[in-house]
UniProtKB/TrEMBL annotation:
Protein name from the UniProt record: EAL domain-containing protein
Record-annotated EAL domain positions: 24-277
Domain of life: Bacteria
């Protein structure tokens, strides 16, 4: 194979692969120091009730800003953190920090549910329940104010083990949402097997929901499945009033996306909540 390609071509690909591996290695060592250097933060994206327009909660999204570099997005560093197992201590920090923010909102008299993204490794290779319980004890936030987001692929990795963890989550009173719903390779059977509360329609079906009949059909089907199984359903990546109106018309309970608010620092979300409570903020309820 290398002979056919010729030496030059082969070493070109070889070099590219080495560059990629080197980049990962560098990122890995910088990620390993990031916790100690306090380089992580959480931003919060509002989640709204489609009928009333009320902000009832927010999803916590991780950000990494290395002291000596540019901010790095989670889709770039989470895979490296998962590969190296670093997602375990990082994920633990995320849980504690999200609970602390939930506590701040509670102390301010605001009813805000906080959604936390959890990786498969946290389910299978750490004691997620113990971590949540510790954060719960430290902050006194009731479990019903916390929702755990998992992807379909996480659940099907080891159905038996996942089941035990999810049942324990449910018993403890936490909410459970399936993230990026519709993009995984799992069967629909787990919808009745796992103790779920919510499906999150993946953004890829929402983006063209107004113009593409297939995307619309998939979004509607997900809404109908959720509703008939008594689950809540939320659309991710809602950017326009038209998308929101269409999804609401088809029975989607909740929305999340740039239309309602970008992921932002907690203080900025506080400002938004205050403005809306005093009636001076923008009306977000979709037409
Ligand atoms: P996700 O959980 O599906 O989060 C939604 C992503 O969509 C976020 O990207 C958010 O900024 C983006 N988004 C929200 N609304 C819109 C919109 O209207 N338009 C567009 N174009 N994008 C929108 P982000 O923050 O870059 O996060 C990417 C992914 O990284 C998340 O997808 C999640 O899978 C993962 N992630 C983020 N934080 C954590 C964490 O603390 N732990 C773990 N394990 N994964 C995390
Ligand atoms: Mg999520
Ligand atoms: Mg998602
Ligand atoms: Mg995602």
């Amino acid at each position: 194979h290398s002979k056919e390609c010729g030496r030059g071509t082969f070493s070109y690909f070889d070099e590219k692969m080495n560059a990629k591996a080197a980049e990962r290695l560098v990122m890995h060592s910088r990620l390993r120091q990031a916790l100690g250097r306090d380089e992580f933060s959480l931003v919060y994206q509002p989640q709204v009730n489609m009928r009333t327009g009320r902000i009832f909660g927010a999803e916590a999204l991780l950000r990494w800003t290395p002291r000596d570099g540019e901010p790095v997005g989670p889709s770039r560093f989470i895979p490296v953190a998962e590969e190296s197992g670093l997602i375990l201590p990082i994920g633990e920090w995320v849980i504690h920090e999200a609970f602390r923010q939930a506590r701040r909102w509670r102390d301010a008299g605001l009813s805000m549910q906080v959604s936390i993204n959890v990786s498969g490794l946290q389910i299978y290779r750490s004691d997620l329940i113990a971590t949540l319980a510790a954060a719960q004890r430290d902050t006194g936030v009731p479990p019903r104010m916390i929702e755990v987001e998992l992807t379909e692929s996480t659940l099907v990795e080891d159905v038996h083990a996942a089941h035990e963890v999810l049942d324990a989550l449910k018993r403890a009173g936490y909410g459970l949402a399936i993230d990026d719903f519709g993009t995984g390779y799992s069967s629909l059977a787990y919808l009745k097997r796992f103790p779920l509360n919510k499906l999150k329609i993946d953004r890829s079906f929402v983006t063209d929901v107004c113009s593409n009949a297939e995307d619309r059909a998939i979004a509607r089907a997900i809404i109908q499945i959720a509703r008939s199984l008594n689950l809540r359903v939320v659309a991710e990546g809602v950017e326009t009033v038209e998308q929101a109106a269409l999804l609401r018309r088809h029975g989607c309970h909740e929305g999340q996306g740039y239309l309602f608010g970008r992921p932002m620092a907690a203080q900025d979300l506080d400002g938004l909540l205050e403005a809306r409570a005093s009636g001076t903020g923008p009306a977000l309820a979709p037409g």
